[in-house]
Amino acid sequence: MKKDKDFLSQIPDWEKDYKESSENEILFDKKDWKSASAKFTEHDLKIFGCAVMEDWETPYMEDLAKVACSNGGVVLELGFGMGISAKFIQKEKIDKHIIIEANKEVVKKAISFSEKAKHKTEVLEGFWEDVIEKIPDESLDGILFDTYPLTDKELYQNHFNFFAFAFKKLKKGGVFTYYSDEINTFGDVHIVKLKEVGFKTENIKSRLCTVNPPVDCEYWKTNTILTPIIIK
Ligand SMILES: C[S@@+](CC[C@H](N)C(=O)[O-])C[C@H]1O[C@@H](n2cnc3c(N)ncnc32)[C@H](O)[C@@H]1O
Q1: Is 63 in the pocket of ligand 1 (CB under 6 A)?
Q2: What are the helix (H) ranges across the chain?
Q3: Does the CB atom of residue 82 touch ligand 1 within 6 A?
Q4: CATH number of 55-231
Q5: What is this structure's pTM?
Q6: Are 57 and 68 in contact (CB under 8 A)?
Q7: What residues of the chain score a pLDDT lower than 50?
Q8: Reduced to 3 states, what is the DSSP secondary structure of residue 97?
């Protein structure tokens, strides 16, 4: 895969091997993700052997949920995973929670979660790319985006493809947050891409969340992670 300079500038130092290698990292086919077996333990979720979600992210999920629910109303969550952020969303004062999830086994968990949820909850099954248009434009008060890269082209940038849809689906004044993959500030590429789809510089804010990943965590090795707060 061709990795350009702008893209590489946002990859953290601990991913040096990735920067230097031109080999593909993702060894499964995106189309097989939906039916792949989801291996849950008390502390993590693996699909195709990949660390899709780990519970040290709990404080970060809580922070993202607080941001996404800060206007109340209808909140869209993309990527159910272990349902950690979903639980925090349900603790907030909202009218409706919509969940988009692609993996069939994870969808089952999301449906059973929705049946017991405090607030009205709807689960849309499929890749967000295929189901997002089921949601009317300018209908959402908040969005929490936390999916997982399913092709090499999406590595470290699976959120960028969603930005235009975030802008389109949010009401004016609606709030967008996402798993940023950033340690303490937005890399320039985030700002460029957010502005390209219509978000204004003065409405692109963030705060830092403190996390405590285990030393052997493969994908995060520091004690902060950036929580985006983007208002339409
Ligand atoms: C990091 S986990 C989400 C973690 C979740 N926020 C939590 O608190 O447990 C990512 C989830 O996104 C799903 N996913 C990945 N790519 C997707 C896509 N394109 N559309 C919908 N769901 C996707 C995965 O199957 C996985 O369940």
Answers
A1: no
A2: 5-8, 16-20, 58-68, 84-91, 104-116, 128-131, 163-169, 188-196
A3: yes
A4: 3.40.50.150
A5: 0.97
A6: no
A7: none
A8: strand
